[in-house]
Structures are given as C-alpha cells and as structure tokens.
Amino acid sequence: MPITMQGSWTVSVKSKSAAFPQRFVIEGAATGNGTYPGDVAAAPVFVTGASWIVRIQNNPGTGFVDSADRIKFPAVVAGQYRFDIESDDGGGSDIDFNDLVLTCSTPVTATDFLVYGNVLAYSGCLINPCIRRWIVIETADALIDALKNPVLRVPIERLYPERIPLPPVPPGPPPDPPPFTPLVIPLAEEVAIPARRVQIVPRAPAVREVGAVESPEAEEEVRSFAVRSVAVSAPARLAVDFDRVAAGRIADAIRPLCLTDPLAGYVLRFQEYDRTAAELAGGPYTGTGSRETLGACATDRNGNYIFRFSRSLAQFFGEADVDVAAGEDEVVQAMPDLIVQLLDATLPGGVAFETAPYWNVPLLKRIDLCIPRGRLRRPPTGCQEDALIYSIGNIRIRVAATTFDAAGRVTCTDVSLPDIPQARCAAWGGALRFFACFNKDLPVTQYTVRHRHRVGLGWSAWEFYQEPLPLLKITMVTEQIGPFDRMLELTSGGPLQPAKAYNNIQNNLNFAGSERELRAVVSSAGGSPPYAPAPGTVQFRIQGYDASGMQVAGAVDTVTLYIDNTIPELAIPSVTMGSQTGGDCALFSLSGEPSPARVTVRFKALQRQGFLRSYDLTVRKGNIGGFGIATTTGPGGETSAPISSSYVHGGGASCNQLFGTLFPHEPLADAGGFVTAYVVPASGNWLAPGQPFCTFAFNVGAVLRVTNGYNTAEYSYGPVQYLLGIQQ
Predict the structure, then answer these.
(1) Tell me: the pLDDT tens digits for 11-29?
(2) How crowded is residue 36: how many other Cβ atoms within 10 Å of its Cβ?
(3) Tens digits of per-residue pLDDT, 534-543?
(4) Is the CB of residue 254 less than 8 Å from the CB of residue 158?
(5) Helix, strand, coil tally for the chain in percent (to 5)
(6) How far apart are CA 141 and CA 452, in angstroms?
(7) Residue 175: CB partners within 8 Å, gap ≥ 6?
(8) Contacts of 170 (CB under 8 A, 6+ apart)
(9) Which DSSP state fits 152?
(10) 510 compared with 487, residue with greater pLDDT
(11) CA angle 201-113-216, nearest 5°?
C-alpha cells in the first residue's frame, strides 16, 4: 500500500535486487510529483507538501502494479532523519522485501518533530498494555471491571469522581459509540499529570508578531537555533495518594493476558493538546482542553507508522500564552502533548478511538499504540476462501462455529477471539456492517446490494440498498463510493437496467485497509426503502459487475437474516396485599396479614417474536438491595405464574423460543400477556423484627437475544418498577 508522508523529504533509490522493472511514484505533493525509475543511479527527488504519498511499483510483464512495501523506523544519521521503504514485487518464491529499497531523508531541525511506532489492537485485558508509567482505562467495559477491584477503585474515585456512577446503558443493540475519554492513573508520580519538560528556543534577533508571515530565510534562521530541555514544576499540583505498588502489581498481572495483533492500513490523526486550567494546576486529564490537528498518516502492512509535523516560531510563542504554567518565560515553549485518533468514516464524527495524551513529546519519539479491539469496526479476520459475504460485524458467518436456521436466526459459538459476540438463536438489529470480498482475479468494478423480505410463503420483490457509503482514504480524505445511478445487467442474460451501484474499492490501495472490504452499513431499523417493514426474515444479496455493467460469474452471494428491532413489553399495573390495594402512593400494613404476608403482583414481560433470553420479577428493599422472594399459592389455592424464566438453547441451528408471559406460550397469561404471581419473602417476613417501616420496589426486567455483530447478543431492558411502603 502507498506510504503516507508529511513535509519536505529527499527520496532516493538505495538498492535494487529484482528481475522485474521497478519504479516509484510521488503523488499529492506540492512539488516533486511524478514517476521515477527504480535505479540506484537515478538522481534523488526532493519532495515538499503538507501530505503526500509514495508508492513502489513493479512490472511483471503485464504493466506496472503496486508492490508490497513496509517502512523501517527512522534514525539520526549525520544530522538527518533517515528511514527506508522496502518492497517485495511478488516475483518468485522469495518474500525478502529487497526488490526496491528507497531511502527518505530530511535535516534534523529545532522545529520539526518525528514520531513513529507500531500500532496493535488488544483484547482480553482492561488496561492499555503499551503504556507502563500509567494505568490507562480506555473503554466503558474496562472501567466497569476496574471499579470492581478495590485497589484500582481508590484512584479512580479520587481522580475521576464524576465518572462514578457510570451512566445507565440504553437498552438494545448500542449505536456506534462516540470516543471514550480515557482515564489516566499515574503509577510513577505523585501527581495526576506529570511535570512538564519544556523546550527552550532562543528569541530571534528580530522578533515577529504572532501570526506574521515568515520568509523562507527567517524560517531557516529558526531551524538553526539550538534546543535544550529542562524540567518545569507547576505550582499547586494535585497530589494523588493510593497504593501504587499494589496497582502496579495488578497492571503487571493483567498485561500478559492481552492478545494483540497489528493494524495494517489504518489512518491515524494527530492532535496537539493544550491543558485546561485545572490540568495546568496538576488535576487529572479530562480531554476537554483545546486541540490543534497536526495531520494524519497511515500504518503499513506491519502496523508501523512515521509521522512528521512542524512548529513555527510564531506557534512556539503562541503556545507560551496557552499551555505553559505560571512563571515561565514567554520564549519557553512547552514540548507538545499529542493525542492520536483512529479514524473511521462510517462512525459519528469519523473517530473510532482516541488515546490519552502522550506528554512532553521530544523532537524524535517512538510511540507504540495499543487500541482496544472493541473500538474497531473491522472484523478480526479478513477474506475467507470461497466466501463473498464473510462477516457481519465481528461475527464470521462462513465458519463452523456460526450457524443459521432457515429463518435467519444466528447462533455463534466462535471463541477464537474475546471480542466475537456469543449468540444463541439471536435476531439481528441495529446498524449491520456487511464485509465481503471478491476474488482478486475477477473483473469486478462495481456492485449492488439488494434486499427482500419474506411475505407468507414467498418473497417480496428485490429492492436496492441506497444508503450513502463514505469511506476513508489514507490521506484522511473521505470519498463516497456510492450509490450511483448505473445501467446494469440485473437479470442474467437480460438487458441493462437502471440500478443503484457502489464502486468496488477492494484493491484500491489509496483507501484505508480497514475499510476496503466494507460493502454496506445497513440501518436495519429503517433505511430507504425500509429493509424490515416488520420483524421477520430479510435476504440481502451482493452482486458484482464489470466495467460494462455485466454480471461477473462467481461474484454473487446471498445471506438470510431475521431482523427484529422491537423491544420487550414490560409492565406492573397492580400490586396488592390481601384486601389492601396499591396506588400512586401505596402503603401496606402487615397487621392482620398472615406471616409471611402474601403479595399479589400482576405483571407482564414478553417479546412477541420469542427472542427473550430471560425475564425476572425481583424486589429491592430500601437501601439494603436485592430482597429474595418465592412464589406461593393464591388465596383460593390458585397456581402462581412463574416470576422468572430463561431461554434453553436447542443446540446448533436448532432454535427454541422464549416469548415470556405471552398467551398461549404461557398458559396462565391473559389475552393481553398479563400474569398474576403470588409472592412471599424467601425467608422471614417483609420487615425484620424491630423494623417499623421500609420501602420496596417491585421490578420486572428482561434480556433480549439480539446482535449487531459486535456486542454480546444479550441486551437488558427495564426494570419497570412499582414502588410501595410496608409498615408493621
């Protein structure tokens, strides 16, 4: 894939060891664009531009094609930053990445920063395994787990009290989440944010105003300045007292549990972060400070990246007014704090994940990034042999561990990675990401996505999926790949007809590798026209076409899904105790009632398509918490309805259903789905000896079996509550 570059570099051929003709191409630069021979005798090329790309190509006899390439990390040699781009042309049996090697070089200056490193996805652990000096918590699920640990809970409560309690999780398949602001817990320092190290830049002989246009001569004068770093202590820094040794031991025990793999072809955006006033005083990181976007780059085939950015003299002076603690001179420029974002054009705001700041970044710095896999929207594995539609979200649909029944209910028992949802005869709901790949030897230039739903014993007519699909290029530009009005052979052997088609960018290396196999993001609850007018079975078909609009043999696939975005019906219309009735302000007395007193509850908990995982009627007492209850018979010996039930899986694609209190599936339910339960305390009475009064909450909730391909196929709804008081 092409290598992204920033700023001015000299590109030269270092070596060639290949039989095929070689060349390299510069694109998107201000100067230096063109095609150059892969010859060590060729003159070096000086390239300038804010952002540009270099690609290495070879000619196997059928024309020039892109080579496989990778970057080597930079080093300082004779006052210059240097790094190599190595390539393999695919010829022969060797994969040695020495067919054509380029060297990129640029002078080391006082105003140019170079950061580089490797990017990994991690799963199976709750903290970032790449960061050692801090415990960094980067997802809501990890925060929930961390709060369960008494050692980690202490610093979280002291540094981030506003993050506790956690906000309630909305029911159902979650929407695409916005970036989670990381929690940063220091292990090696007594303060919430480390002391600054600052870069001292001597004032130029002729001081220019901030924002003034600088001549090339003046800029070169700035580049020649000497640089030194000194420690700066800000006053009134917030001390954070907790057991750092115990926390460090927990972190050391967690990191080996992490599973990691490189992220190839992902786009990273870099921002410079200015601390808030509270952070300048030593408070914890909040992510609410001002930011400046510096640019972007893309990772190579191994997940490696190199990114360059510059700071002008005016920016150095301007920073002194914003992000430097009290008492520092105006010519003192704090070393930049960098936030790195992982971009995804299909998500709200275009950001899948962002890191905590990397503080006090020097001119040359290696920053290895670990990104929680749960924040990615690309499946953990790519194309599979003989499979076109190979994944919906993270659920691989062409493996033995994933089965469908005839209606499209999915069972997934794939445990090869921690982030694959486990589903048992679940429905599909929410935003569904379809990943598919065409055989690279097929001439597929465009494709359609069509859908139809089951009507009785037949099917509706095929209709076109028509939602816009914007995808990200490695240059951080978003390009919509469809739908476009085309004339296509919709019926094999038939005439060309109007259609809605998308461009096939699977082999277009200008697009981010994370998105080249994404074919559609289906809003299963809506769309235009709707994909599922009512809960039921829907088929989706992807068909590939060549440049002339003709169907390509072997480039078609159909998947059948049961889509259901309805929610459980939960209600508790009445609660009584003997002859005492409830109401808006229900108050029951134990006087005159048997011991234990019997409470009659009328409730419903149902889902009309049978996708309940479970339902429960529970009780909470005062501030004590859960209060055990059991069923008994009614006043006339009537049988009590069950107060809970759970789905029992039939195994494989053999699907059972759980409707809850829906008649006739629950024989004791009425036509509206309501049942009557007679409950007593599991032990003792409602009030303990010496308790004159307490409040109670009767709760009914349910868990639904539905998945969007990313999150566990168990979503909680409720509780619906009925509040009352009981007195002696």
Answers:
(1) 999 999 998 999 999 999 9
(2) 19
(3) 899 999 999 9
(4) no
(5) 10, 40, 50
(6) 36
(7) 348, 430, 431
(8) none
(9) H
(10) 487
(11) 65
